[in-house]
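Researcher: Go.
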Amino acid sequence: MGRGRRGYATGPLDKGTLRRALKYVFGGYPIHLIIVALFIGLSAFVHLRGTLFMRELIDVYILPMLDTVDPDYGPLAGALGKLAALYLAGVIAAYSYNLIMIYVSQGTLARIRNEVFSHMQTLPIRYFDTHERGDVMSVYTNDVDAMREIIGRTIPQVLNSGITVVITFISMVKLSIPMTCMSILMVCVQLFAAKKLGGLSRKYFFLRQTAIGKANSFVEETLEGEKVVKVFCHEDHAIEEFDILNENLRSSAAKANIYAGILMPVNGNIGNIAYVLMAVIGGAIVISGKVSYMTLGMLVTFLSLSRSFSRPITQVSQQVNSIALAMAGAARIFAVLDAESEADEGKVELVNARILDDGTVEETAEHTGQWAWKYPHSDGTITYTPMQGQVTLENVDFSYDGEKTVLHEVSLYGNPGEKIAFVGSTGAGKTTITNLLNRFYDIDQGKIRYDGINIQKIKKPALRSALGIVLQDSQLFTGTIMENIRYGRLNATDEECIAAARLANADAFIRRLPEGYDTMITGNGANLSQGERQMLCIARAAVADPPVMILDEATSSIDTRTESLVQTAMDALMHGRTTFVIAHRLSTVRNSDCIMVMEQGRIIERGNHEQLIAKQGRYYQLYTGNAAKETA
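Model: Structure:
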């Protein structure tokens, strides 16, 4: 279980990632954020007004009353009542903007998940062949969740801090310019520390997110292959490999949190030092009385303002953890969103058709059971070609990586209703041909035609809907049996799905289940046998009713007894359809109209069973070798 697949690119976080992440928030909820900013401004103003009241409280109320024999507490009580009302408004504002940000954050995350999933449906098969599933799943879970904290808490915290810094700075300048300069100097020291330590934590948070993706991929791969692990007694090896991945995760997470964790106390202590220095200097000035405007109330107020001025830096440093984690997750999310979608330059569509008595083809909106290729030409004319199921390959060359050619000048034709079989050694290129017919990959040289039309001119959804495929691995989805059969054609009726199940020899075992067609399938059909799952896949292909079928080793993973049932179902499915069959059991392809023998990406023999046996070539060797093994 090596880690040979290519994962996401790693590297330093650029500022564009942060700007792009913020666009999702500000672009999706501008009105909400304006209201949030107003509430944050009100909350910050309330806090500032409470701080400035300290000067009034000491200089206007407390000190004068100390010199009065019978002080009047009425004015003080009135001022405190107004302040209490103001604080109540601040509490309501803080509650309101936090409530709104919950709505904004959850809505933004839902939008991100939708965009990632929608874009993933447009990605080519090559993308999924080169990215581990666990790593991709980590984007939906860990990386999207990493952005929740920054949207719900960090953004309002930064807005609050920014507004607080501005209005506090203005108030400090009005009170004392020299002491304001001292406070600014200490804030610059805090910013320098935040930049250095924040850069280190961001680096390791990115490594942490990547390590989570790799660990998830390994766990998922091991769970899927747990039987193989136990058969080959690789439990200890799997544990050792996971220990390495887990240690990488622990190390990067620890370093990220260490740098993020020490930033807050470092900045907090720098703020404490600044507070002490200003208290000592300011206290000396007040005691000396040399500066007339420097009163005790003003000093207490300024010290409180200096706290309010430096506190946002400390508060933002507390968010470094969330910011770094969110940006690391955002970088991986955007890597998926920036992956190039599958190109589709085709213009030929597949439409419902009606063939008139004179042989002309007419497009119709009704489902007639007849189809035609709608071909718009450059001169504005449109021609309709009845879909028959003729497939030809002309001198096709192909390579997966652009370097190593895996198919060499492959030519073949399949007339409507014919059964074409591919046999040969593993890696000969049999499955590659089926991938090219579906345009999961595009050829390097040559041409592939469907009913005489170059498939590169056919829209991919139209092409793939005209091809049915049954794979060796029977993939089912969570849902009822009826829903899984209907997956082949979503507008199929229950009667059509049942008819497809009968054709696939699946109706009998389905009706024996406690809930029949309403039986729920979970875990890729773990409650069904391999043969039963394969028959459901055949029924799913049958309900789609395509003129061309691809059977990719569909019986290789089931027992001989079940194979006869599945083979009977496939024979019924293939009747009247052009069919391409890939099989290791040569007994299943004896009745093929044409058998292609492939080796190292080339067709070395072709003909029907009797012709190839008579040649006594490679097919003869393969067939007699299988027969000898069966006899033994």
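Model: The two ends are 34 Å apart (CA to CA).
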